[in-house]
Amino acid sequence: MRKPFILTLLLILVLCPSIKAQSPADSPEAVFDTLWEMFDQHYALFPAKSIDWPKLHDVYRPRIVTDMTEEELFSVLTDMLSHLNDNHVILLAQSLGRDFSAGYIGPYIEDMGFEGLLQFLQQHPLPERYYKDAPRMLEEDVFQYGWVDQDVGYFHLTGFQSTVDNAAAMDSILKDLSSARALIVDVRYNCGGDDRVGKIIADCFADKRRLYMITRDRIGPGYDDFREPRYWHVEPASRTFTKPVILLANRFSVSAAENFVLAMRVLPHVTVVGDFTSGCFADMAWFNLPNGWRCSYSRNYFVDYAGRCWEGIGVPPDIMIRGANPEDDTDHAFEVALALLQHGGPSPQDESASAAAARVSLVEIL
User: Fold this and answer.
1) pTM of structure
2) Residue 334 parent element (H or E)
């Protein structure tokens, strides 16, 4: 299952100090060929992104020469990988002290470093002045919640980490906010984690069984060789909230947070406010290059219930509020969400197709 996006990267740095100590142990040609062939055999999103991977080989392979420097090799590899527009495509070059992501958050990794980016993606974005009382924390500050109006509750979570702990936290939050007539759920600055946890949390808002996502693992040498699809559904939990909900998301809602948005947006009483999500949905896999560098790729293919793939794009909001960061202690996306709820809330949306498309798996039943 998917590891938390940024935490996975940090663990690699902590647990693999030998990477930093190594100097290039093989030729630039071998490094390039290993990387290109691993993607050729395992990357799942070439058809979805209309990428001609063999043609990119023809363009970039001639730039590889035996006496090129590590910096030059890094530049060629990242130039080629950048065409994939995928946050889950990461190149860690410890010998250079350089790291690369092919997606939207790539410049932030370069500017902040991994520790800085981790802190950035784990902040609670809502300025405390918007709370009626001091916000409460759960699960080592993963959850922050409280009242933001007389009868409107709010909670933010920084990641989807533990099926048991996060389920218990959600039950506690919904119990404490049970008298709310509406909720604001916030997954901005969320580094992702386990999709099963996202489903457990989304189940707490489900009105009925609804299909929200279909996933397929790449299993063969062909770019379209996939395992049989897996269907993901939201289903009502033991404690549910089906009154109006506004879900806040932005470009720093990453990975499993985006799949959570896919789950929530099929619920008629949920309205998504903010910006597009980051645009990376698939699970990551890692491999070593001959010179000690490490690289990751997307190993499967995710679509929403209607078969739409949002890789490289991000899930669109229902109501667009551009801008990632609160300015001058003012959170415009939150203010719009609260104003909508104070004026009766958005009308329920017709999500009948997600219920009509819900499938029952005979494997699960038997």
Assistant:
1) 0.90
2) helix 332-342
